[in-house]
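Researcher: Please predict.
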Amino acid sequence: MTALNELTLAEARDGLKAKDFSAREIAQAHLDAIEKADALNAYIVGTPDRALKMAEVSDEKIAKGEARPLEGLPLGIKDLFATQGVHTTAGSKILEGFEPHYESNVSTQLWRDGAVMLGKLNLDEFAMGSSNETSAYGNTISPWRRSGSDVALVPGGSSGGSAAAVAAHLCLGATATDTGGSIRQPAAFTGTVGIKPTYGRCSRWGIIAYASSLDQAGPIARTVQDCAILLGSMAGHDPRDTTSVDLPVPDFEAAISRGVKGLTIGIPKEYRVEGMPEEILRLWDQGAEWLKAAGATIKEISLPHTQYALPAYYIVAPAEASSNLARYDGVRYGLRVPGKDIAGMYENTRAAGFGREVKRRIMIGTYVLSAGYYDAYYVRAQKIRTLIKRDFEQAYAAGVDAILTPATPSAAFGLGEMASADPVQMYLNDVFTVTVNMAGLPGIAVPAGLDSQGLPLGLQLIGRPFDEETLFAAAQTIENAAGRMKLPPAWWA
């Protein structure tokens, strides 16, 4: 029999409904697995008592025939989402000891629908990173290994804890956030599925901000269906978030069976970047063949401003971060390091509380917003952002329904392998994903195969605004053709 923590979210939902096991039993199975997985460092904070209490409530609801959509399903929450009464850190020392008196909108809706909270998941500090190596609480380790090697690998970032926990069967699914690829890249690195919905589909209220015009919440899970189920609960209008869009939430789960017959899938020539590994090119071509065999039309398209997306992103995102992170000053909450006067306290607190990468991005952002440089950098980056958005609009106006690209330029790399003196090498991990955030579009990463070293590789599908349904249908087609990713054995247990 499959262990309870190794079920997919959909299988667990159906098993609970059929009363094959109880919510308490499946919660306990996950808590036991988490306890054995310290080596992965996926969780910053565990909430076992809360999980068992929530599971007991779910069992009562199921017994009365009052089960809600996510009744009794154990989830992990990225530690960027405020959780009432539970330590919330954003992976940073500066929020040490912070326990919010409020709950994020996304997690509120998950609890409304009956989900069970297992704990808070590790992440790059303030979601700034592509490897989970910038967390003040230590690296998360991927459950994957290269064939014949014991080298510790990164799970991607910033949602590395979410992706690692899902891949290692430490939760049925997890919340995550994506500012420039932080759902899709770790999902691709760990053989899981991750969707960044259209900007505005999920409320940002109660999510600790990095770059407000780019941040978007979404789920990571083990299958396309599981992601569709979770997004159905996470999405929805929230009047407290002025960027939250007042649109009905479709039945995403029903969309996965629609198929791709009659759809036109665009293949952007600009994504064939110099030096891309041959096995990623082959997988990309294979993905196009799978979609074609299922009835889609494949069409080469041009997104001419793609080459400017990464430099523009690394101006816009740090600029917004420098503004958002100004609130962490030691006055109201979190870390406080005394100084000779109030200015000294600010300086000492921020110097001790922020990590190196966060400081780097704050300084870049402050520089590009400063007098004399604002027009030269920030305004120009926003103009490029408009051109990137227009490229996609023209492709969709020409009849393209979705766009297929690689999710990452490589498979997962080892801890420390990119922690060089040149941070740009790490930033290049986002080369295929940042355009989606700059244009506010939905994008999904789905596992499609293994590289020559036995590590997962993912494909990315990019959709029209608020057309996540087509992405789920196309992603399900790829998942069906590639076969469900077999996740690694528990070497850490």
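Model: The radius of gyration is 21 Å.
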